[in-house]
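ok so for the tutorial part 2 we go from a plain amino acid sequence to predicted structure tokens. step 1 is just haveing the sequence, like this:
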Amino acid sequence: MYHLSLEELYNFLIEETNMPKFMDFNENVSLLPISSVEYRDKIRGAMVSLALGDAYGSHLEGQLPQEVEYINSFLKGDRNAASISITDDTEMAIMLAESLIIHQDFHPEDIANRFIRQPITQVGNTIKDFITNYRDRKIPWYTSGCESAGNGAAVRCPPIALINYGDFTSLKLMAGIQASITHMDQMAIASSIVHSTAIAYLINLPPFRLKDKEDLYKFIAACGKSIKGIETKVYPTRKNCQIANLYTRINIELMEAIEKDLAVDEVQEKWGSGAYVLESLPYALYVFLKSPNDYEKILKQCLLARDTDTVASLALTLIGAYLGLNNIPKGYVSKLRNLDEILALSDRLFELSLKNKNNNPYRRMRETITDSKCQDEIDKLMWQGIKYNKQDKYQEAVKYFEDLIVKYPEAKKNDKIKLHIIEAYEGLGTKLLGEEAYEDALRCFKKALGYDLNHPVILCDLAITYLNLDDLGKAERYARRSVEIAPEYEIGREVLEAITSLKKKN
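step 2 — the prediction. this is what the tokens look like for a chain of 506 residues:
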């Protein structure tokens, strides 16, 4: 089963199990990576926050409201030596991340094997039943999951979002399948997909960008769109014998709560905040959306939830993905006992994310182009250049972009236009490099570099060109600069190592 593509794996599970056909209503959610976002810091922020929510939540669960303020202030302090540990929520997310990293791909059978072989702290009932089915009763992993609407599938899903922040189809497939391993339930599967979508959406936003209700409405709409049509039934709520499902709660009730600006405790009283994912995930989303730029306030609100550790993990993962590690209070982070392990995993997930071309902000935009024609000249020139980029006709693209810059020099200041111009020059340079026209290739790469002096791919292209021109000094300088800017860029490291080796031989 390791050799199956995601689509083949999904079709197999549909045929062999009771897994919901969650891809039947595959409305695309636009996830657009941008070059100004520090993705490694964002991924670190999400993973560290997942662990912090779990550790703080389990450590402070059951505290009275008047005690939370004092305890939270104590733990936040840089001078205090308290140390806190993670539990099952983070442990299972780590197992999922380790499987992705080791295999450099998604293999649910390996994930299932890790769930039964590695120790888990405070195992919940759903996971206990899964372990009994798979390990003890020898039931196949893909039919060992239980019909449970708990929140365990959602809370462990962040690694899926962190390697697919520009690829919604892969994100939805992986998030849904990973949930089905233990939670073979429509709403549990939807919860994993919507939480993954929320994380990916926020990773692509610059920190502190959520400022008004319109921004929040767009975020909620994207979350709702990601799970539209998955749930074909409704579930009982714990209030007044009403019925709902995750889609209606997020797309309608969450939107209304934001519009009315309800108090957090009012929403908690209305929806609940227990382990039932219909309660905990929408509540965590609301806590985040009420104070998206205030890490400490979100944590304090989560500590008053019924399922404290999971609600805190869900909400803090969102703000961690949004703000990044550098914007999390250092006093909180320093208390995490396995911080180094979390950071190392985060960095490996970032490296894995670079393998998916849809996550590349420098290449992604050209794949979203339509044939629509704009009326004014600047748009006509730009879109014609983009069209040729998409068709790999870089010589023609360069011509249109050069005409655009000559006629409208101010267009150089537009970040989106700059990305397309870089794409054209890099594509043409790469073509010339393959034709061994090294001097011409050099000119193209230098033109591209003029639009972004810190572009690691262009710097590496220049290094390779100078290497072919037998100028090891300049080749090393550009390769080293590429690695300094993007240490995770594997090609850059390999080129630098090759150049260093050649210099030693000479």
